[in-house]
Specification:
heterodimer; A: 441 residues; mainly alpha; two-stranded antiparallel sheet; 59% helix; globular; B: 307 residues; 2 domains; two-stranded antiparallel ribbon; 11 helices; 4 strands; extended
Chain lengths: 441, 307
Amino acid sequence: MSFSWAKPYEPKHPVMRWIDERLPLPRVVYGAIGGGYPVPRNLNYWWNFGVLAGIFLTIQIVTGIVLAMHYTASTDGAFNSVNQLIMRDVNAGWLLRYAHMNGASFFFLVTYIHIFRGLYYGSYKAPRELVWMLGLVIYLLMMATGFMGYVLPWGQMSYWGAQVITGFFSAFPLVGEPIRIWLLGGYAPDQAALTRFFSLHYLLPFVIAGVVILHIWALHIPGSSNPTGVDVKSERDTLPFHPFYTAKDGWFAAAVLLFYALVTYYAPNYLGHPDNYIPANPLATPAHIVPEWYFWPFYAILRSFTVDFILPAKLWGVLAMFSSILLLFFLPWLDKSPVRSGSYRPVFKRFFWLLVIDVLILGYIGGAEINARNVALGQAAAAYYFLHFLVILPLVSKFETTLPLPNSISESVLHGEEAEAAPAGQTKTKRGGSVATTTAH
Amino acid sequence: MVRVIGFLVGLVFAGVLLISLVSNAASYFRNPPAPLASEEFHKEPKPLRLASDGPFGKFDNRQLQRGFQVYSEVCSACHSMKLVSFRDLKGIGYNDAEIKKIASDWKVQVPSINPDTGEPATRKALSSDNFPSPFANEVAARAANNNALPPDLSLITKAREGGAAYVHSLLTGYQNQPAELLKKFPDAKTPPNLHYNPYFANLNIAMPPPLTTDGQVQYEDGTKPTVNQMATDVAAFLVWTAEPNLASRHAAGLAVAIFLLIASVLGYFAYQNIWYSSKREVRVTGALDPENQEKNRRAKAKQGVAG
């Protein structure tokens, strides 16, 4: 941790001192998510979603481990083990399964908000490039895990989703088809594919947990960013993570979990597709093959390439879909504006909100039926997606006149510019506008 | 360098998308897509209200038992229900003795092995058995149904868009093909062995109308067995087969929601409390305020009091 005022760990209990002298794990935890990690005092609620992603990863791992105790990874038994054994006969099995199903959706939801927060506040910029890139690695691992998890119940969408997604590789000339067969362990999704997907679906969450540790480690070198994007200058700009942000994350997590519980208990199948309650049938293609909602924007990009122009349309689609994520790795070098926060970048801000709308449109198109209007809308939205990151953002960062930045985080807090971090009505400056003299803890 | 390459990549992708857009638009206006009968005459399911609807929904066991009667007397002739076992019927209010009797009286027996010869045989179903399927396998099912496969009904209300309302509408939606349809789409005449039903995706379903006359099933509880009533009851029953834990899920959800609501409210106040002093940057007031101390010191000095 780079701030000199970060409090060192002082074990209070003799047992903790005993442990700390032999294995400084308590020290590491204290410095990472305890009182030893100073955090900018002006974080708003958009900064809560990283912790939430961690909570949902934990929920997924815990429910997933118990589900795996009852699941059968065989093409004959998978559907029944989920839909009869787990859903009917295992004690609270229905809860485990619905919590896991919807937990995946919420994990993606909070991660998307977390990513867009990073995009708006320039969290990918120096010195946090590696934090951003490790986050993208987590996101890619999540996509792989989510996809393979959806295959496990071996319903119609599981089967045909696996067929379509592994089919991406066959778009590449020469090497494509052998790669696809190698990945599947056969010519079509079958027992070999199901077993390896189960194995990897169990492995990858722990890889994600490992990369999460790297993500947090890399974050804690420069420390958290903040809504002004101004660097932390003194102790006055920060508060210890515990108890201030544990309290803030705590209540907000309970509120988000409430929302998650309402979906899990009252609309557990709302985010899923009815066809996945039909057992996989390699001989009957569903009318509309769609992936889970969190892949819809990318699915829309894939489907938007409809013309064989030099390369086959399918190859264009696959290249564009992979590029749409990979380009995010280059974001720190595409956007060279020295100002981090979108709040002080009037032109960038407009384009950012345009991007949000654009991705929502892509999401809608990815899940909607294919007709002339939707295809055209998807093509326009996909084109904007690439233009935004690869053309507009570099140009904006070059020509934009940014607004004056506050001198420090404390100053912006006192001016009420970033009042979100404080409970309502408690940030107003004290008598005479003089800067506070004492800070009680 | 990154930006130059990015710029070119962005323009190439956008360009190819533009070409796709233009060529699609051109072909759309050159050959507008022909309308389809299945798009114009398909109907969304009629609204259906069941006791299990909504966050406080619970099953109406009497209705589920009537629905089970419809399933066992009508639907089960063709449709399997592989994921449900006889013992599960306890959930809709049958006792152990009744379930035992239902199982052993079931018109299809369970495949087994002759204990003396080892040859394939059948035996009476037990409470612990799943519902035996009416056909031994898919080939037999198709052979008996003009090559159509009657779907398993265990999960049907979760496996179809519209759920129970779809099942109810489908069962009550059989009708003659509208003259208007034939006038507009002369080629769309329902083929022989299929039946016109506007609630079915492609309008022509292989299943003949299963519920045709009032009183087809004689209810024991005195409910009047109209076609609509039977369709509603069996739809309700199929909600239960697909989601037998619905009532306990709703009850548990309420408890969890109340717990989390209280947790978030308490958590919010704890958060307010913890942030109060730090965020407000407390200024000392009264005699200890440095400004007041300065004033006091000056006042005392003026009056010559040592302080």
